[in-house]
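Title: [Solved] Core-2/I-branching beta-1,6-N-acetylglucosaminyltransferase family protein 3D structure

Original question kept below for reference.
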Amino acid sequence: MFSTPFVLSFSLLLSLPILFLLAPRFLSPLQQQPQSPVLISPSDEQDDLALFNRASGSAINSINNNNPSRFSHLSTGSNPKRKIAFLFLTNSDLHFSPLWDQFFKGNSHLYNIYVHADPTVNVTRPHGVFEGRFIPAKRTYRASATLISATRRLLATAIIDDPANVFFAVLSQYCVPLHSFRYVYHSLVVSRSFDSSSAETDAELTRLGVRAKYKSFIEILSKSRNLWKRYTARGRFAMMPEVPYDQFRVGSQFFVLTRRHALAVVKDRTLWRKFRSPCYKEDECYPEEHYFPTLLSMTDPNGCTQYTLTRVNWTGTTKGHPYTYGAAEVSPELIHRLRESNHSESYLFARKFSPDCLKPLMDIAKKAIFRD
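Solution (posted by the thread starter after getting help):
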């Protein structure tokens, strides 16, 4: 006769294969990660292509940045207003929507909001300025080209929606403003001194008192640790010949693009075919940090400032994620430190803040954040 411990051990051994087969069924979606490289489906590609073609076509009937008088979605009179499109990319609730409500208050004629929320996540749609601003979205995965696609959808939708959108600011649910809306708008649309790298003169102002020539605020770096490993994450020669290594760039996925550069992004087909290819080294693959800076560096480097307006703290980074500020760290002094920039008069946004930061941020909004 077999002893009871032996029978139990033998039974457990036999049950292991069954457990391996059934375990995925009991794991929540948040616990599961793709077991193979993420591919963008042909149907999603077709949907995006149709959207991008619409955006490209709409540009023919709209104006360029140098002729604001022909905008169709503007205030009446001889002083039309240009707008900033705020593009939120999220896979969770918009934790700081009350803060953004305060930020946008009283300026509805100067901005538009668009939100791309991962449809596989149960995101609570807030009221206020975000109500009705969610666009048709697709699932996104970290370390895949799906994040590029999501950003391009936001850009294309904003281009089609309103020809008055002249700047396109990409943000996440963990981003917060560092200034009032009035300061942000003036810095981007009007100011000649905000960009420290600019050498514009008074002659470059239009008769309406706004700048005629704009640059995109996007970080573009040619040197970075692990850049070669990221370049070869799809294979040693996978990016050739369209993207030689000496033209491969890296930068923050959070940027502010001009309308002409937003159009360049949605019109692109050549570089997209390279960057949509799946990576086989997931820990060295962040396509959204390379596609945009590489594309704009190759097509219009002089039209970009080479730096971002979103402050981030990479101290103590883990698995590619930046430092996350907690509620106890929020103070007027922190806001003032985060504003400091070597490239412009100030950073305009900052990340990454944990959801529990909402209350302390709201407490200092009037006396610190929105006091410029």
